[in-house]
Design goal:
Shape: globular
Strand order of the largest sheet: 14-15-16-13-12-18-19
Strand content: 15-25%
Helix content: 25-40%
Bound molecules: NADP nicotinamide-adenine-dinucleotide phosphate
Number of strands: 22
Structural class: alpha/beta
Length: 471
Amino acid sequence: MDYNKLYINGEWVDGASGKWIEVENPYTMEKFARVPRGNAEDVDKAAKAAKAAFPAWSSKTLDERIALMENFLSAFRSYEDELVDMISKELGAPKAFARTSHCEYQYTRVRSYIDLAPSVPMIEKMEQSTTYRFPVGVIGCITPWNYPLGQVIQKVVPALLMGNTVVLKPSQQTPLTSYILADCFEKAGFPAGVFNFVTGRGGEVGNALSTHPDVDMVSFTGSTKGGVEVSRQALGTVKHISLELGGKSPCVLLPSDDYEQAIRACFNTILLNSGQTCTALSRILVPSKDKEAIEQLMKDIVKEYVAGDPSDPSVKLGPVASRAQFDKIKSYIERGLAEGARLLAGSVPCEPEHGYFIDPVIFTDVDNGMDIAQEEIFGPVLCVIGYDDIDEAVRIANDVKYGLNAAVWGPKDDAINVALRIESGNVYINDGPRDTAAPFGGWKQSGIGREGGVYGMIEFTQQKALFDTGH
Ligand code: NAP
């Protein structure tokens, strides 16, 4: 794999700027690789290549595109060890978690897209018309660092299956995983220009993609701030826009005799991946009458989540992803203390010497109006908030600008009733499993559009209605 190149029009080529971005391992704190700092010239080449490849690619049958995607999936699987190693190095994720959640789960996603592609309703007969779906064209995919593999798969695979061509810009912080994916697309036999890949900064490559006249759609995953900025730029040429943004998701515990399973499930979202998960349940809403008992349980269970060497198979938490992330999380812990929240676990982290480690932090006595309850910290920091009745729990759950994810634990019918009142795109009921076929996406400032399954593929199509019932 040559990390010194970009992948444009089926070839590994030099970046135009001659400049580089260094990639740091957040555990060793060493800069261990560098990639080209792409610029507008590279994006222009990639967008033109994608536009040129579009007519032939979109004319292929779905079966032909699926056959190539099957090749891709085989190549992708064959790289598992390299991918696990790379995700661990560039993100700091523990290898065991990198294998299951970062890597293997993506095979399930690709499989799901392939299997569901034939059921996307490409032609729909209405009373006086017929509606046809077409690919949108050239898709600019802009992805974050927290799941460097999954976020790319969620966009590129459905976009290509629906007949679009792609220019991918991964996060400058974790670009190396995408080199392996680019290699897989090449090995799979995708025609030149169908998949293109330009590394670089959001302000340069991302900006150039959002404004390029040959890019028909921007599919963005990242912060709400970044999504707003990209959308502003993309509207200049009236692009399709799909946004998967941040969250501040609630986990509502209904009154129960046993809270242990719910606490463990909540911890797995807010602590694993060091809390750097968009769907992390970062606010746990508990019945006030049981708050003390729940807090004691949390104090016991959190001891199982020890941060350490990501290559140690027993380690659940690695370092957070970067110095910037470390500083941001640390400042929120300080802010939480200043706001009057009480620490149940964890502390203000010391200056990092070997890895950007932050041990799990649990704040209790949190008022939902505090910054630590309103803003996405994106670290292993959980807020415990008491409620007196269900109406209050629902009000607190919804009292944030975000609406990405939620969970409700309790008797199933009661939990569903509460879930239906929560303003978010997804709600987990008790230990309900993740379903790759379900639409995933946010309400409110958590996003526009959906990923996953048939809805995730429809996102990369546009409709044409034929009024065809006359003579
Ligand atoms: P980010 O700073 O918004 O960056 C995301 C991507 O956008 C990166 O590739 C970034 O480039 C680029 N970018 C940033 N500003 C841009 C601009 N003005 N113009 C064009 N491109 C721009 O987000 P992040 O810190 O990487 O990721 C964490 C965020 O992603 C969290 O808020 C998390 O909740 C969210 N997220 C959401 C989902 C979801 O499905 N809803 C999934 C995962 C993550 P650089 O390389 O320069 O950073």
